């Protein structure tokens, strides 16, 4: 099965909110900028950015602010609430892609034939899905992604991805952010069916998991 690689926020694809894009970074010496000083601090920061967050998501973040982690069961429960919210608004059940580290991403769906050119419907759906994401899962998703794929809390997706790949032994220790950016750019501009040689093996589930945790969306096609 072919995989389309999209390097952008999941929020832009599925209509979810933008919690992970509005995080304020803090300086961290030679390591560049960080999202926060710890996962506990990150959870507290996300709580402080509340704008339409539902009570269940707040409760999960409060738990993480104390324990310093989000359980896989709490993470899955947040996505389950997102699915329920979307269906309650009258849309088809979203399809989720699950990675080896537990991360879940909504896959794109096909518009009904009679709605394909209905701009009002498309805009309303985007607004509704955005509201569901903000209420149920966005902030929990951002925290869980950092927990499993960016534990050093790099504010830069590129730094986070390279760190994840190195820690998993999927690239040489000498691999640089510059190399990663060059390879990611080549993949982003590849023609349909074109194979791009990368230092990491895109067929390995662990590679996809690292990249998904750091700003990449993968669409099966």
General description of the model:
It comes from Bifidobacterium bifidum. Residues 1-19 form the signal peptide. With 221 residues, this protein is mostly helical. It has one domain (3-220). The chain has helices spanning 10-14, 39-48, 55-67, 72-88, 119-136, 138-149, 157-167, 177-188, 205-212; strands at 3-7, 26-27, 33-34, 96-98, 104-106, 216-220. Helix 2 packs antiparallel against helix 6. The longest helix has 18 residues, at 119-136. The N and C termini lie close together (7 Å).
In brief:
The longest helix is centred in the middle third of the chain and has 18 residues, at 119-136. The chain has one domain (3-220).
Question: Strands, helices and their partners?
Answer:
Elements: E1 3-7, H1 10-14, E2 26-27, E3 33-34, H2 39-48, H3 55-67, H4 72-88, E4 96-98, E5 104-106, H5 119-136, H6 138-149, H7 157-167, H8 177-188, H9 205-212, E6 216-220
Helix pairs in contact: 2-3, 2-6, 4-5
List keywords for this structure.
globular, disordered N terminus, mainly alpha, 9% strand, single chain, 221 residues, two-stranded antiparallel ribbon
Distance between the termini: 7 Å
By helix and strand content, what is the structural category? mainly alpha
Helix content: 40-55%
Kindly report the spatial arrangement of strands forming the biggest sheet: 1-6
The number of distinct helices, counting runs of at least 4 residues, comes to: 9
The biggest sheet amounts to: 2 strands, antiparallel
Total count of strands? 6
Run of helices and strands: EHEEHHHEEHHHHHE
- Overall outline: globular
- Indicate the mean pLDDT: 86
> How many structural domains can be distinguished in the coordinates?
1
Strand content: 5-15%
What low-confidence regions span 5 or more consecutive residues with pLDDT below 50? 1-30
Rounded to an integer in angstroms, the radius of gyration calculated over CA atoms is 18 Å
Keywords: Signal
Protein name: Lipoprotein
